[in-house]
Amino acid sequence: MSRSSTFGGGLLSGLATLGVLYLAIPLLAFFSFVVANWNQVNFSGVSSAAFVSVGATTLATIIDALVAIPLAFLVANSTSKWTRVLGDLVRLPLGLPPLVAGVMLLLAFGPYTLIGRAFHGSLVNSFAAVTLAQLFVSLPFVFEISRSAFTASGPETVAVASTLGFSKTRTFIAFSLVESWRPLKSALALGWLRAFGEFGATILVAYHPYSLPIFTYVQFSGFGVPSAVGIVLVTLVLGALGSVVFLSLPSPRWVVKALQREVQQERNRSAGPNELNASFNVEGSVKDFSVSLSCEQPFESLSILGFSGSGKSLALSYLAGVSRLNQVSKASYLRVSDTVGVPKDGYLGRYKVTWVPQSSGVSKGYKVKDELEIVRRRNATSKMFFEELISRFDIEELLDKEGASLSGGQRQLVALVRAFLTRPHLVLLDEPFAAMDFALRKKIQRKVMLWTAENPTILVLVTHDPEEAVVLGDDVVVLAHGCTISAGGAEEIFGSPRTVEEAAVLGVENFFPIEFVKLRVPDLNISESTRYVAVRATDFVVYIDENKSGVRFWFTGEIIIFRRLGRKVRILLGVEGLRDEIVVESDLSIELNVGEKINVAVAALLELH
Q: What is the pTM of this model?
């Protein structure tokens, strides 16, 4: 172990120890005093103050849960500037001195205010006043921690649920609460402790009846430290118990599952295989990034290829109706057969549109079978269809697993099943196989192909894998820097890419500047507009001997890497005059060594502009 890492670990341990000691010393001093002077500890009057504190704090925390948590969900999932302003206003009490908060409460609820007179002055020096003071200081705590929890779980939870047929309210109850339950419990526990210990605001609006903090102050100021020890001991015990209770609250997932009623009537899905096709045009921007993606010719299966950051996922989420674009052109639309527009709550007219994001969006708070059952009920899918889908995609062994325990590939597999469970007319898949191992990926690709063929469904796939694009899409769109650079049939697109960028997206690995080519084959018939010649790795022929008769375009390279992949070999060649190495795939049966020089001839080339 290096000295720097040892020092770093020692420093962190030392700082952590200092923090623990600082908190532990007062507690040790207090309990030592209690043990040494137990016969003098006085609990007189503590019970009534404890009742006021526990009762008012619990009521305030319940109100926090009913108000602050839904508000935090709305703020976390809204892009409106007014919602952000509202969030800032709710946070404001966090920075106020407690006495300032008390003055504000008096000006709002005092006996001579409009609200105070309406309640005949009962909002001060009362149980209600204690609750109001505690609520004012605890609500921002619960709100801010809850907002952070909903933000961390991401807006995708809401977005995915909307394409599964859930409204925002149902999403909040069925998914977001369950997904974020652990931090939400912490929010309520901290809110309870903050309210339980409130003194500054309470002393101004509710000196009577005594809460534990006020009673501690009264006893201490009148009779000194020993008289307050019993109250402090009760306060510590009740504070610990209250926080443990809230931290132990069980997840609401079972209640949610029990309350989910099955929709009695499924939306009409009468469109037959010959009627079902789609087309789209998306033009718009988000901040300083613009996207223009179009496929005007009706298709039944489409693959969208492009480098990372080219806008594929953004455009797909817009087509799903879950992402907004600024400065949207009037031409932006999705057409499913006879219906045009942008999907809302998972439907475009009578057509169901489902979206599977890269992250899968599978809930970590449910068992797989429970989440799928909630989706099944919401979409009124028959149990026979449900069981057939589970069997077809071989996820029986995953049904009793918690979502949090699934691997990335398993989550993507469950997300695919969940999407098909809604019986969509159009399914939008954003790199749905990226986290799967090679064997599973190929297997599930075949299953998706068969499923969409047997259950007529339009497929739009975003992928980086050219082979995957061809397997699942009859048509292909190539996207670069937010713009469509080519669109058409898969054979046409892959057979004749026009630019270096397009060829690279389509999986071509080798590019030769035209000057390099003409230097070796001056009379090669190449268009004057050609800037590069591209060659696929499989379009090389390796010559071990010197006989290259009949070969026009060839060159010599030095082997940098030689790898055998079953019956084929993959060679990385360094070629004089080229900045980048050349990748060659061949069916050579002999072994070659690094450093050897070989001759390779070009069997087919692509002219790029």
A: 0.83
